[in-house]
Design goal:
2 copies of one chain form a homodimer.
Chain A: H1 3-9, E1 28-29, H2 35-44, H3 50-53, E2 65-68, E3 71-75, E4 81-84, H4 86-96, H5 103-106, E5 108-109, E6 117-118, E7 124-132, H6 134-138, H7 147-166, E8 172-178, E9 183-192, E10 194-200, H8 203-206, H9 210-213, E11 225-231, E12 245-246, E13 265-270, H10 281-312, H11 314-344, H12 346-362, H13 365-371, H14 374-386, H15 389-401, H16 403-417, H17 434-443, H18 450-465, H19 474-482, H20 488-502, H21 508-515, H22 519-524, H23 528-569, E14 582-587, E15 591-594, E16 597-599, E17 602-604, H24 605-611, H25 622-629, E18 645-650, E19 662-664, E20 670-677, E21 695-699, H26 700-710, H27 714-719
Antiparallel strand pairs in A: 1-14, 2-3, 2-7, 3-4, 4-11, 5-10, 6-10, 7-9, 8-9, 10-11, 11-12, 13-14, 13-19, 15-16, 17-18, 18-21, 19-20, 20-21
Helix pairs in contact in A: 1-11, 4-11, 7-23, 10-11, 10-12, 10-18, 12-13, 14-23, 15-16, 15-18, 16-23, 17-21, 18-20
Amino acid sequence: MAGRCIAALVILSVLVMAAASLAEEGMWPLDKLDKTMYKRMKAMGLELSSKDIYDGKGGGIAYAIVQLGGGTASFVSPKGLMFTNHHVAFTALQRVSTAEQNYIEEGFLAEGYEDEIPAPGYRAYVLLSIKDVTKKVFGAVKDEMSDLERYNAIEMRSKEIVEECEENRDVECRVASFYDGMEYKLFTYFVVKDIRIVYAPMRSIGNYGGDIDNWMWPRHTGDFSFLRAYVAPDGSSAEYADENIPYVPSVFLHISSKGVKKNDFTMVIGYPGQTMRYRSSNSIGHHQNFNYPRRIKMFRELLNIFNRAAEADESVAIKVASFDAMLNNAMKNYEGMLEGFEKAGLLDRKLAEEKEFTAWLESNGEMKKKYDDVLPSIKAQYDDYKMRREKNMITGFTGFGCLMIRASSMIYRWCLEKEKEDIEREPGYQERDVPRLKQGLKILQLSYDRETDKKVLSYFMHRALELPENQRIEAFDDMMSEAPGSSDSDKIDAIIEELYSGTKLESAEERLRMFDLSRKELLEEGDPFIEFAMKLREEIKVLEEKDKGFGGALNKLRPKLIEAYAKWKGGALYPDANGTMRLTYGVVKGYSPKDAVNYSYITNLSGVVEKHTGEEPFDCPEEILELYEARDFGGYVDAVTGDVPVDFLSTCDITGGNSGSPILNARGEVIGSAFDGNYESISADYLFNERLTRDINVDVRYALFVMDKVSGAQHLLDELTIH
Amino acid sequence: MAGRCIAALVILSVLVMAAASLAEEGMWPLDKLDKTMYKRMKAMGLELSSKDIYDGKGGGIAYAIVQLGGGTASFVSPKGLMFTNHHVAFTALQRVSTAEQNYIEEGFLAEGYEDEIPAPGYRAYVLLSIKDVTKKVFGAVKDEMSDLERYNAIEMRSKEIVEECEENRDVECRVASFYDGMEYKLFTYFVVKDIRIVYAPMRSIGNYGGDIDNWMWPRHTGDFSFLRAYVAPDGSSAEYADENIPYVPSVFLHISSKGVKKNDFTMVIGYPGQTMRYRSSNSIGHHQNFNYPRRIKMFRELLNIFNRAAEADESVAIKVASFDAMLNNAMKNYEGMLEGFEKAGLLDRKLAEEKEFTAWLESNGEMKKKYDDVLPSIKAQYDDYKMRREKNMITGFTGFGCLMIRASSMIYRWCLEKEKEDIEREPGYQERDVPRLKQGLKILQLSYDRETDKKVLSYFMHRALELPENQRIEAFDDMMSEAPGSSDSDKIDAIIEELYSGTKLESAEERLRMFDLSRKELLEEGDPFIEFAMKLREEIKVLEEKDKGFGGALNKLRPKLIEAYAKWKGGALYPDANGTMRLTYGVVKGYSPKDAVNYSYITNLSGVVEKHTGEEPFDCPEEILELYEARDFGGYVDAVTGDVPVDFLSTCDITGGNSGSPILNARGEVIGSAFDGNYESISADYLFNERLTRDINVDVRYALFVMDKVSGAQHLLDELTIH
């Protein structure tokens, strides 16, 4: 599911109410796992104590699990070796590949530490502690505040808490909101900034089935890779340096080669990005009728641009591969989401539920007094949002898809923010963020192709022409009115020509130089993209403030709704995913997608061979075909199927961000790596369906088989602790 | 599979060698079932004696099974009521439907005998006896004969046998060749010529899933219908007449409402059309590289013509529906065949087998002497065939697809044949065939639409322009050289305009009048289509004689090959299907089409509802939706699934022509009606794969449920004997 990308794309967070009726449903915060939960897990087979999993003081297997590259990874050796998905390492592989040395296509194996390749831009977040700061945060809020003021007060207090937490320490702190603003917690991480690529199988194993099989079962993808964490010789966090040494984690996981069978207990610990299981009908309606259809259309059109460029030139293909994969993945996600909404009749069910809820309020004077205005108030917020949603979408995605717009907006924004006190600055533009911003400006080079970037900008400008009267982008309209040319297309071409021929931002060096300039100096440069960014900024600021008001209002309303629903229905609820560490547990289990069709819980090497057509993405490597032909399975054989296992299903509740999470057995040993959900699970972000929702994991035995028999990675196998 | 059509389409019969290694494989002639077979069947669960099934003297359930409309049906009441597929009755429904009264769409239920609607052109063949005539046939063959002479001698002797058999009797006789010419048998049938439509469910039940689900599993089609056989008051065979009375069969089948479960014994008795399990690599190569790909392309292009015409006008849609369904079905068949060939690597396997066979010959002096020339001789025949195959295909399909060409060719051919002694005439053009030929000329009206027919002819003329130099259709080239117009298209339009504006053949009355004319009288009519047919006839005759020589040669070579293979491999072989009655037995069983996917043996009403989209072909009737919603199953519930059963799978070995065959339980009771094979079974015509080949049957309980709860056909249920 390449989940890391999805989380990044969800710009507007928006609404499902589901009772945590089934034990398997739920992404539980580690500090929320109580005795009842452990009892249930033990009944299902868990052999560990609660302290073996998470003791809150740096002990327990949970501490071996890190957030990495928007996904998850786990330490599997005392020398900082991390096990994750191939698709989590994909952007790194893309950034270091060239047409001559294509690590995506051919895979990579470092023969020793000295061969490991730096993964530019990658960071691993190692959890140190979790602390409840709800009271502290709410201490900044006053009843009489407007929505925007409330939003800003919470943001400011959060920054203060983070600043205090990070002061004089080699850590990164984050305040996360739970239950849509009901609780706040402070997370402290040690950040590993020197990540290196150790091993990745060739694309035809690591991404076997490609976009066709993405979100699909049966699946035959060897979606795994290994990276290593490095720190300064003194153990402190440091950017890449020759002298750096492997990081020694406090805990690392063992591997089980014993395999899985039906109904085995499983758990996944990782960093799910976002779920929306407590949202209202307004949110569902927004996504179903506007957000997803629009994004699907836009992404399809952008993919056409990228694909044409990639077909014409292999070096461009490498540059756009990562963005291309992300768009494809997100598009399929949205399509599955829409299909899931419709199949489940989600909107109708939400509306019916809200009707029942309202009837309950009517029948209960006290509750009515307290919660009567919640749903109408949420609706009013969405009605207001409609008045800017078209403009929001175009401006948001232009600054995301066009790299020159992205760079110029970032540089200009920084020159504004740097004039403020650090604590006053926008999150993401504080002193602590500077290295990451700079790194972003630098590595942008690896994805940049001028002609493609021009086409992307041209695409968005044409879309901007179609905006309704009350949502025009004035900066753009002004440029159009002054541009030479008789047709809109000619004018857009002329604007783009002027922007790209006049800019210095195509050079990484120049971008970094300009980043350090003051506003005055920057404007004196006269760079046309910076000038465009400046004009755009005024309009985006207005949108942002409105969105903050929207956020502030919902931040007050949603917890109230969850509170009311909890009272209405009774029982404890788990909080939606928010990019913090969660545990989900379940069992190994197949499913029936439709009448008379039953999917087994596991796939086999014979299925890899069966899908082989010789053409990407079903171009199984010759090595695998030969091993299969010779039945040379090297002992990595499943006892039930008599074949080499490839991928398996479990009922664990995961989402984007969980990619690369270890899936563990009853003893906490790694039995695989979670890398996807089935198609039916896409809409589980809104509504978990126990009958159909499954996570897809690469079986660790397949990883061992490929490392051993295909790649000859014996030294890597030796580094693991395999039971 | 709408099998009846497939058999009709296989113009050139062409090759697989498979050992009858598995008891479930094989379509056994009833008179070939020996003790070993019965023993095996009993071991699998059969509770009947051999005489209960077929005693050779008119006794046994086999005698309740008839050939009907290119498919199969079975008597299920003492009053001539026949149970068959909806798609076997489809052409009849189409012929009697109008835009106002559309029986295809709405279904039909006769409230009593008097409401039953004649099914024009339908005939039921009731088996009376089977007799071995091999010696008699070979008595006409002499060693020194050429291939063509041999072909003609066998054909002539067969006609003599038929003539003798039919003399002064109310029967129809046919000589059928077994093992590609190794044995000959005489079949005597009583022909019921007055068939009437009794009941057909609406299209959205009888053809639920349509072309999308055709050849597919899981399936949810209620593919069944009831017709009735009528004879003259004295019991003799008679065309439709008011005074006719229901036919009293010697045997009729009982119905079981007890249902099926996994591994239950099943048998299917019916009229499979053609299999080619003993063919050589030359035949496979011909189909894989020429025949199927060409037909697929041609049928797709013809379907485009029909579909455009049907979309524009509903009355045209009804006229072309039957032909359209047949093309669609055949196209899917060919596609499945090609996919099956490739998946199974059939050509390579055949070549390898022949290599082994040749090596065996080399090692065995006596065998080498006897069989050394067989494979090379077959190859030589195919090489020769290549020199006319393009022309063969165009002329063959033009006379098939364009109804005016079809009618004029038939009329002209008949005026030639009638000049000969009856016994000298081409099979199909003898005195005995006259009523059928006339009927064909009459009912052609029901499918005729002038504009569509013109477009079809234009299509074939354009294809004829592309023929290679050595395979030109001279009659057509001559017309082109004389036609006005500057471009080929203009010329073709002019030719077509002249043909259709000048012909009288569009009137059924005129066609029947001309049919009775002598050659001289016919030519004096000056009908442009008749003139065209006359010119074409000369060229087609040359092709036909060459094909007969090809047939004569293969008729000698193939039995020799089968004989040699039998000696090489040892063991008994069943003969390929040839349109005569066969029995196949097996068990109720699902299958796994690919890794991690398992198909259950049965589908359910919940699956019908699941597939419902409201749009054809998945437009489940409101009545069914309501019954399902209300769980109003009326007792037609499967004990295992707790749902109303719809279709089920068994391992019985069937092919086109079996459509409508009863599938029977261990006691010989009807448990369903065979109507299709799964996609993986398409290539089973060449190679039976026990793991994947399944037949698809409508569960008789679904038929009863629909008749009872949807159609209220209580009087029809009362006519059945249900256990």
